[in-house]
Design a protein that fits this description.
Elements: H1 2-15, H2 20-32, H3 34-50, H4 54-81, H5 111-126, H6 133-150, H7 156-177, E1 185-192, E2 197-204
Antiparallel strand pairs: 1-2
Helix pairs in contact: 2-6, 3-4, 4-5, 4-7, 5-6, 5-7, 6-7
């Protein structure tokens, strides 16, 4: 089953991550966090604007836009699926709205993996004529995803789904900015932070 396979693969990654390897995992998880990530994107935007590197400024701006919208999607999915994280004895069961023993039901999908692959998707899309950009963008994103498993924060499938979600939204953001595939109407998850209720909203562009 999914939970068993996830645990087996996750345990293998953890067993191979010790010493210097684990330190590297901490470094990539740190880079994927909100503060450092926002700082890097902001620095990229400012450098692009001040240095007249228009595509760098565009990629940084679109990354920030995509990250904001994807935060809603991942929060919605985490609340809906309520999958326990591997720490504190979590076995990756879904729909655990009242977990036991301090377990945290916010494992699926990995928000950091989604964020890292959003940036990778955007930069690869903006620099679509570059052969090296996919390696530069997706390489670190993959390491961020690996770090979440190595540090026992997520199961492998959490990272995989987060990566697919992030990369897809990143490329869709670039396509919409270029005028391709723009939609007049779309559905999006909605979360009210005051009442802690979730739902879906429909928006229409005239």
């Amino acid at each position: 089953d999914l939970e068993g396979a996830d645990q087996e693969l996750g345990d293998y990654v953890i067993s191979q991550s010790s010493g210097r390897t684990k330190a590297v995992a901490h470094d990539f998880t740190f880079l994927g966090n909100l503060g450092p990530g926002a700082l890097l994107i902001g620095a990229g935007y400012l450098f692009g604007r001040l240095g007249h590197h228009d595509r760098l400024a565009e990629a940084s701006s679109l990354s920030a836009e995509a990250l904001l919208s994807t935060g809603l999607y991942t929060t919605f999915l985490k609340s809906l699926t309520a999958r326990t994280r591997p720490a504190n004895g979590g076995t990756g069961d879904f729909f655990q709205y009242t977990p036991q023993g301090g377990q945290v039901p916010t494992s699926f999908p990995s928000g950091l993996a989604a964020a890292a692959f959003i940036v990778a998707g955007v930069f690869s899309g903006v620099y679509s004529d570059s052969k090296w950009m996919p390696w530069v963008a997706y390489g670190p994103a993959g390491l961020v995803g690996w770090s979440r498993v190595a540090l026992h924060r997520h199961f492998p499938s959490d990272v995989l789904v987060g990566a697919v979600l992030g990369s897809s939204i990143g490329r869709m953001t670039v396509a919409r900015n270029d005028g391709a595939g723009a939609r007049l109407a779309e559905f999006a998850p909605f979360i009210d932070p005051e009442t802690h209720t979730e739902g879906v909203v429909w928006t229409h562009s005239w």
